Amino acid sequence: MPRYTLRQLEYFAAVAEAESISSAAAALHVTPTAVASALTELERVLRSQLVVRRKAHGITLTPTGQHLRTRIAALLREADELERAAAGGAGELAGPLVLGCYSTVAPTIVPILMKWVRDHHPRVDLSVVTGNQAELPRRLLAGELDLAIGYDIALPDGLDSVRLYSAPPYALLPAGHRLAHRETVSVAELAVEPMIMLDLPPAAQHTRMLFERAGTEPRVEQRTTDFELTRSLVARGFGYSVLIQRPTVNRSYEDLPLALREITPAVPVANVLMMWSREVRLNDRAEALAAFATRNAELLDPRRRG
Fold first, then answer.
1. Are 153 and 205 in contact (CB under 8 A)?
2. Residue 202, preceding peptide bond in cis (omega within 30° of 0)
3. 100 beta partners
4. CB 167 within 8 A of CB 181
5. What is the pTM of this model?
């Protein structure tokens, strides 16, 4: 049997996170002496120095400490799951669940998922983090999120996923635009018009790829990193935009009409995924939410609800 304890691992993880013994002690509601003693005993048992202690400057993890920090996160989660399962009884889900969601997708998906959790598993404490396509996979792999929802574009290795729905890009036009009466618009026709670029990964990369494949480039007049601002500028006639996410209402925040038109020729379709780290076993709450999202993918697709 291992000679270290889960309490020692918990204290070490807190020190690594806070980069200070005193701060870790405050977070754990114990004395700094208790944390320091547990850390010293853990180093003795493992026969390795885990931290470099600098008076008045906190601590720095050694290479061994860095390695241990990445390894114990899963062990502590497993221990927590075991305790919750024993206390809650079979079939009752309880405990924290952290879901990440791409910022433009969140308004149409997150409320549905939160309502299901509230109605069917009220003891689950669901918290939601929104972010961009680069941030969310990184946080998944770091163990900061249980699940994340985003696009299947520029994803790193180490993730597993299920597909929720496809999201083909479309042209967003002012309602009175000269192309708005058409059912479809071509990339060549759009290229000569002023564009409002949603400069937020992966939207910008996907848009540039669309024009590159057509052998042209967009005439970018404005760049934003805000989805609704992009829609509002289009509605005001500053230009068109190419977007992936589809709100169910074709009007701007100012209640001005917008026109959504399919793009020809057929362009690469993005898929919305629910993702998790391959290195982390899903807890029962994450498994339940992923199963609900997969069974009800049509409900989550804004094109099916619009």
1. yes
2. yes
3. 129, 148
4. no
5. 0.69
Q: Which two tokens stand for residue 96?
A: 């924290």
User: Which one, of 53, 121, 60, 158, lies nearest residue 283 by Cα?
Assistant: 121
Mean pLDDT by 10 residues, the chain (306 residues): 83 90 91 92 90 81 87 76 60 85 92 95 93 89 90 90 92 95 93 94 84 92 94 97 90 95 84 91 90 92 75
Question: What is the rounded CA–CA span in Å between residue 292 and residue 306?
Answer: 21
In degrees rounded to 5, what are phi and psi of residue 162? -125, 145
Give the CA dihedral 47, 8, 277, 144, nearest 10 degrees.
-130
Phi, then psi, of 291 in degrees rounded to 5 = -65, -40
Q: Return the structure tokens found at 134.
A: 């680069």
Token code pair at residue 49: 């120095």
Structure tokens at 98: 């952290």
Residue 191 three-state SS: helix
